[in-house]
Amino acid sequence: MEEGLDRLARPFIHRLRVRYAECDMQGVVFNSHYLVYFDAALTELWREALGGYRLMLDQDIDLVVAEAHLRYKSAARFEDELTVEMTITHLGETSIVSEYSIGCDGTPLVDGMTRHVTVSRDTLKKTPIPGWMRSGLEPWVSSGR
Amino acid sequence: MEEGLDRLARPFIHRLRVRYAECDMQGVVFNSHYLVYFDAALTELWREALGGYRLMLDQDIDLVVAEAHLRYKSAARFEDELTVEMTITHLGETSIVSEYSIGCDGTPLVDGMTRHVTVSRDTLKKTPIPGWMRSGLEPWVSSGR
Amino acid sequence: MEEGLDRLARPFIHRLRVRYAECDMQGVVFNSHYLVYFDAALTELWREALGGYRLMLDQDIDLVVAEAHLRYKSAARFEDELTVEMTITHLGETSIVSEYSIGCDGTPLVDGMTRHVTVSRDTLKKTPIPGWMRSGLEPWVSSGR
Amino acid sequence: MEEGLDRLARPFIHRLRVRYAECDMQGVVFNSHYLVYFDAALTELWREALGGYRLMLDQDIDLVVAEAHLRYKSAARFEDELTVEMTITHLGETSIVSEYSIGCDGTPLVDGMTRHVTVSRDTLKKTPIPGWMRSGLEPWVSSGR
Question: What pTM, to 2 d.p., does this model score?
Fold first, then answer.
């Protein structure tokens, strides 16, 4: 699929500015905040692909995180403008695996992965990814790097 | 009331240890976290006075913050063990005014105030403080300093 | 001064999107995060006025917060795009008073004030606002609303 | 070594209470906060083993996180009292691998791993774990589970 091939070369990109409150005594972003940055990128991809995370919630679908992995290569600093590249690498029956690569001015800083599970918003029990959601996300699915 | 008089001299005290993630590039607690410390003290006072914040939620009562004020006198540092002193200074029809004083080893660090409003948990609309809640909190109400 | 008059009508504006991690069990932004939003606006105003907060640090000047006040009128929600309007209302010898007004789609949400003190970055002791900093900030100073 | 064997059966335990501000719209602890909980446990282990993280800083040694991994099994909720079990599973030349297991009332919630690297506090460059630090930490090193 042409669109899919295109996405392989062009992952979803979210830009953000590092806030003062996110930096610790070492003058760098504290390690936990990168998970917030991953989540902010996912929210933006969801808006692009599905019209917004809240629209998904309105359909009684929510996401819970089952797994996360981070590799810290270099530190982001206050006022740095970061790019969060995000690619969905697996869309299973109820699971969504995403890969992230955070950089600044071409320098790679943090790589990571999350595995989400789709649940009913009401019951928080696993529920299959609905068709409308799968087709909305599919253009952003890469077969991995 | 003897218990009330007693409370005047002895405000509710919550102790906590400053976390690394709460300290900024200046090596001190970032200013917003003191509102989290105030809130942690309120949760503990609620547990003592009412059996827990969640019990209040179960009765369809929740709190929203209407106002907050903070005066920063001196800085808390990583690993400092802080005492958060909290006194309720006003219990209105739907409003609860609390005063806080955070210190470390006898040094005053941050003073503050919050005004909460009681709301229905479902509708988030104002609702009067119920009798069981008022009588649970009353022993902790001081007429101010 | 024409430029000053202009600023009275047009405060500094910073736009940001509410993150999932900033919302609490009530589905609204937790009260402490507004202080982070205030700070993010200040960082952006500093960039516009002085070329960046880090440039100020390089001149051995830093800011500490001495006081903060917040009035919560209405709640911001996940994915809301907020505007933070910021005006400096007082530039003293060593103090900077700023007022903030956060809104969403024309609805006012949170008003607030901070008072910062300029300190030596090394010693964290009070130091007068240097001339280059005062002249950089002056166009953004309003005499209050 | 008897002490070491003892540690295998009894990892370091840090207890903490979930704060309201740490819970998200799902009513559970947002995923990034578990990294803060891991870090809080490390701080406490450091105090027990070395007299405090700040004492290590005074010796010009600091830690940076190189990798983190989390598996989320079940959700922690507001007011839950959590136990964070921490074991050091590897003390290398410059690296410290730790494993964590967070639970509540016997229910496992989140498992995780961090790999830290020892650096000079001044230069943030890698530096070998000093002898006094290694011998202080060794009683807490397990050969893995």
Answer: 0.94
